[in-house]
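Here we describe the complex-level prediction in full. Unlike the single-chain runs in Section 2.1, the two entities below were treated as one system.
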Amino acid sequence: MPDPNSSGAPTPRVRFAPSPTGFLHVGSARTFIFNWLYARHNHGTMVLRLDDTDVERNTDASVQSIFEGLRWLGLDWDEEYKQSERLDLHRQAAEAIFAKGLAYRDFTPAHAAPTHSEVDDHSSSQGAWLSNPGMRELSREESDRRAAAGEPFALRYRVPRGEGRILQFVDGVYGAQSKPADEVEDFALLRSDGMPTYHLASCVDDADLRISNIIRGQDHLTNTFKHLLIFEGLGAQPPHFAHLPLLVAPDGAKLSKRKHGPVVSVTTYRDAGFLPQAFVNFLCLLGWSPKNDREFLTLDEIRDLFTLEGVNRANAVINFTDEDPFDAKAVWLNAEHIRALPVEELSRDLQPFFEQAGFNASPEKILAVTPLIRERIKLLRDAVAAADFFFLDKLAPYDPAELIPQKGDAALARRVLQTALEVLPATAFDHDSLDKALRDAAASLGLKAGPMFQPIRVAVCGRKNAPPLFETMVVLGREVCLERIRQAEQNLQSFA
RNA sequence: GGCGCUAUCGUCUAGGGGUUAGGACGUGAGAUUCUCAAUCUUAAAACCCGGGUUCGAUUCCCGGUAGCGCUACCA
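The structure predicted for the assembly as a whole is:
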């Protein structure tokens, strides 16, 4: 294994190991991002591993969705594995642990063991469940005999008892962690159908793939003690662990598809017109800080600044409501990234949104429109509503009263439009010429800019709020502008 | 129930034994422009509670409370 570093220090290997039981979750995406940042910051290797040992819940659609999400984020990885293709390895490992006497067969029928809720119900019961009665003590002979007879069993780790053994590790985020082995239950390694559990498969693969740093959600913090035991059973050096604070909903609950809907899926952000770099920027700021008051950051900057020391320990709330599904800060960051994008690039990103809206939008036209709307949109999809009048052949119907400026009446509005109609045919359609011609016209009418431009703006755009008038007229062209102003003038006639 | 983790403005966070507790989003007010947006200025807004330690705690320690996690033959 060649080391690209000249320093001689081993290069870290990290992994992102999603289980394909649903779409790519924003929490998973963040875990992926943090792993990526750690890997790339340290010139290490990023491994993607599909943890698909739960045959019941895995789906191909989910695998597709996860890849789709990851590809959208624009972050790469170096190696790729599927846990389901490594079953033999897991079983061999289980066999080896069993052979060392570090695991035992538990013939208790599945579901016969007390569940969590049952333990809760029996408020009289003290402490945690540690093992099923009798199973740990079964003699090897009897165990072998029952197994040979075909009786189903789960394989459980024989957690050291009564030795006063303290399990410990130093977490990259949470610091020194320790727990008496006596408080760790005899967790399962193999299910009664012979399939490895998450704990086993995960550790075996981490060991086999020589993962040096495990960066994952804090929900695994206490599981780590079990994992330490498995690595020990494997005779492998445990990797370094770092746990990330969880992303939670505004009500403090863990994000879930069932409870919170599509806002937990990264494709929802993509479809709404988030830029991947903005989304990544936002997610990084949830639980991590560069500690220098900077918030708008490029991927390169984040990668350079990223350290585990900058990771926070408290859960982070991602804000959303039914009316407003996106965190305001995410939206703001997106607007910032939109404005930071070169016009050509932004206009390319906008194309699919215009197409989806059914507009006849050529790349040239979009390129011309982009600078006019780029400061007026927060999400890419906002462009459709912001720029519709550039692409529509016929303006959507609007209230002619809109044409009348603040302090004025229909007669004034008509005079403005008529004047524009007289002046425009002889005016060159560039910014400066329009500016001069229209301002001169306003002066001749004894009007200020506001009352002069407003009727024209509404006539041309079909609404009061729009991009700057002259730029807009240039893009629209003389014919369209004249036509729309004529139309507006007529609307006003019938209105008065 | 047991074990663990966490606790600074509404939210994301910086800070740390003595600070006017800093920044950002959002919100209010104002400035500016042909509207909107952007931009600028500005305002309101926080150290969970109780005990220690200390000359002095928001910061360190302990306890409480709350939230979250684990406590599955889910991951």
